[in-house]
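Hey, can you fold this one?
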Amino acid sequence: MRILLTNDDGINARGLHSLINELNTIAEIYVVAPRSEQSGTGHSITVFDPIKAIETKIPGIKKGWLVGGTPVDCVKLGTKRLVPEPIDLVVSGINHGSNLGTDVLYSGTVSAATEGVIMGYPAIAVSLDTFDASADFSFAAGFTRRLVAAILQESMPRTTLFNVNLPLLPPEQIKGIRMTKLGTRNYDNLFEERRDPRGNIYYWLGGGVLNEEQDEDSDVYAVEHGYISITPIHLDLTHYGLIKKFSKLSDEYLNNLLRGE
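Sure. Predicted structure:
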């Protein structure tokens, strides 16, 4: 089995290297990761600048590259040009901080896994719910190894990724695993106005997570209550209910819309 491993925290991130130490016991690992932190880049790609990829040696892997681009760039470039053999799975993480609810739209971690699905590979994104610089990723990495082995035995569909979030708790305090839906995650977007040395105004984004009531079957609720959350995510964003609703409108009504009447 061959795994393409990436992240959005950068190639030197502790979460990435914790995964290497676990996953290399069950698979050949190719690492294609950003040169520097790319948190919050979402599904952005590099179009108007060249993308540099420098081969790097990391103990425990087959081959690795640090890439001057986004997490999505890493997956595209890795699968199409850098990795010389077919891969079986894309794994993104372990992210330093959770990716819950609507975070998945901003997250470079989840977007890298999403790109894996777009490229035709099963994929997993893994995040640990902490920003503590001294956080221990070892349990999260071990759990990911066991999950990867189980998923590949079940023939995971290539049209879906698993978004995994672990609470920062000792293993004996984790209550269990829940299959969840995406919850709601909004932020108090505060833009602090500052001036550079030349007097030009710029803004620095801050603000924390807003407390909102969550469904008990959501990923946010699960992690907040001590469970590991696994959310299957597919890429079809179509609102089928509205297709059905508007399809019931008469042809005359729709034609009037077309003519501006």
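The domain at 2-183+213-259 is CATH 3.40.1210.10 (Stationary-phase Survival Protein Sure Homolog; Chain: A,). Let me know if you want another pass with a different chain boundary.
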